[in-house]
C-alpha cells in the first residue's frame, strides 16, 4: 500500500541534552524534545525521546523511550477533518561483545520492544489503525576493518509476542496479519576511502533487506521513498509492503578546507509481498546531490533530490529540497 507521512510539518526544531558518566559508571543519558516550527494552521507536531546506556565489562544495557504526537487537518471537498496520531515506543537491549581485535569485532544483542499507536479522526479513535504490540529481536553484528575501509554487517530476527500486555490488532483478528509474525532484516554498510586525481573521496554503499514468511502488521512493514531509504522523494507518500530491499550509494568528495563533504547519491529499492500488488511497478529509484559538514558548532546537510523511477500511483515531486541543522553547545 501507499502510506502517507506521519510527521506533519516539513520543518522541525528541538533541543537535546546529553550527559556522560553521571554515575561514574561510564554511562550516557540522552534527552531530546521538540516539535514543528510551523504549528499554525493545518499541522502540529511534537516529540520526545529518552535514552540511557551503561556498560559493564563486555556487556552493556540500553534503555529507550519515545513519544511522537501530531495533528493535521485534511480537506476533502467541502469537509475538513482533523487527523491525529499518538505513537509510543519502549525498548530494552542487552548487548554482548563476543570478539574484538584490531581488524574486526563481533557482537550480539537481545532486545525487547513495546509499541502503542493510537489514531483519531475528529476525536474518534480509528480502531483499524491502532496497535498495541510487543516483540523480541536477536541481532548479530560484525564489523571489519580491511585496510582503511569499514564494513558493517548486521542480521536480526524479530518475532511478535503477547508479552507486556500486547493485544491482537484488527489486522490479526481479520486474518490480514499473522499472530506471532516473524521477520529477518539484513543490513550491510561500508565506507571505502580512496584517492582520484589527488582528491580525497569515499564510497558509501548501504544495502538493507527485509524478509518474512508471514503477513505483517502495518508498523512492521518495509516502507521506502524518503530520506532514510530511497532518496529523491519527499516522503509524503511511500511504497510499503511486507518484504523488500533498498540500495543506497553515496560518492563523497572531501573538502578539508571547508570542513565539508560534497556528495552524489543514487538509490534504488523494491517492495514485495502483501501490499505490493496494487502498484504498476514495485520499484523506486532516485538521486540526490548535497553538501554536509560542520561550522561554528553547527552540523548541516543541504540536499536536492529527484525521482527516477516510481509507480504511476505515487505522486512524486520532480524536485525535492531538504536540510538538516544540528547545533551543539
UniProtKB/TrEMBL annotation:
<dbReference type="InterPro" id="IPR051544">
    <property type="entry name" value="TPS_OM_transporter"/>
</dbReference>
<protein>
    <submittedName>
        <fullName>Hemolysin transporter protein shlB</fullName>
    </submittedName>
</protein>
<dbReference type="InterPro" id="IPR005565">
    <property type="entry name" value="Hemolysn_activator_HlyB_C"/>
</dbReference>
<dbReference type="GO" id="GO:0098046">
    <property type="term" value="C:type V protein secretion system complex"/>
</dbReference>
<dbReference type="GO" id="GO:0046819">
    <property type="term" value="P:protein secretion by the type V secretion system"/>
</dbReference>
<dbReference type="Pfam" id="PF03865">
    <property type="entry name" value="ShlB"/>
</dbReference>
<feature type="domain" description="Haemolysin activator HlyB C-terminal">
    <location>
        <begin position="4"/>
        <end position="293"/>
    </location>
</feature>
<dbReference type="GO" id="GO:0008320">
    <property type="term" value="F:protein transmembrane transporter activity"/>
</dbReference>
Amino acid at each position: 500500500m501507499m502510506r502517507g507521512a506521519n510527521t506533519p510539518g516539513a520543518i522541525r526544531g528541538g533541543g537535546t541534552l546529553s550527559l556522560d558518566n553521571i554515575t561514574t559508571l561510564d554511562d550516557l543519558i540522552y534527552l531530546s524534545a521538540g516539535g514543528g516550527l510551523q504549528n499554525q494552521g493545518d499541522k502540529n507536531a511534537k516529540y520526545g525521546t529518552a535514552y540511557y546506556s551503561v556498560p559493564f565489562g563486555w556487556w552493556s544495557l540500553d534503555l529507550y523511550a519515545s513519544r511522537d504526537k501530531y495533528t493535521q487537518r485534511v480537506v476533502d471537498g467541502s469537509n475538513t477533518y482533523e487527523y491525529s496520531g499518538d505513537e509510543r515506543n519502549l525498548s530494552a537491549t542487552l548487548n554482548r561483545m563476543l570478539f574484538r581485535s584490531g581488524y574486526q569485532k563481533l557482537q550480539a544483542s537481545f532486545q525487547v520492544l513495546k509499541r502503542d499507536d493510537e489514531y483519531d479522526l475528529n476525536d474518534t479513535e480509528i480502531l483499524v489503525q491502532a496497535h498495541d504490540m510487543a516483540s523480541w529481536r536477536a541481532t548479530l553484528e560484525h564489523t571489519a576493518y580491511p585496510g582503511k575501509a569499514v564494513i558493517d554487517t548486521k542480521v536480526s530476527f524479530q518475532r511478535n509476542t503477547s508479552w507486556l500486555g500486547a493485544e491482537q490488532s484488527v489486522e490479526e483478528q481479520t486474518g490480514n496479519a499473522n499472530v506471532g509474525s516473524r521477520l529477518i532484516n539484513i543490513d550491510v554498510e561500508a565506507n571505502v576511502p580512496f584517492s582520484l586525481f589527488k582528491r580525497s573521496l569515499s564510497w558509501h554503499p548501504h544495502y538493507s533487506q527485509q524478509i518474512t514468511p508471514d503477513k505483517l502488521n502495518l508498523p512492521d512493514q518495509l516502507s521506502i521513498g524518503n530520506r532514510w531509504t530511497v532518496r529523491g522523494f519527499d516522503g509524503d507518500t511511500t511504497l510499503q509492503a511486507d518484504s523488500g530491499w533498498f540500495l543506497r550509494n553515496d560518492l563523497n568528495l572531501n573538502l578539508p578546507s571547508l570542513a565539508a563533504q560534497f556528495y552524489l547519491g543514487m538509490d534504488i529499492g523494491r517492495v514485495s509481498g502483501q501490499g505490493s500488488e496494487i502498484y504498476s511497478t514495485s520499484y523506486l529509484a532516485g538521486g540526490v546531490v548535497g553538501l554536509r559538514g560542520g561550522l561554528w558548532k553547527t552540523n548541516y546537510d543541504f540536499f536536492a533530490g529527484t525521482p527516477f523511477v516510481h509507480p504511476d500511483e505515487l505522486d512524486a515531486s520532480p524536485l525535492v529540497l531538504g536540510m538538516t541543522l544540528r547545533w551543539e553547545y
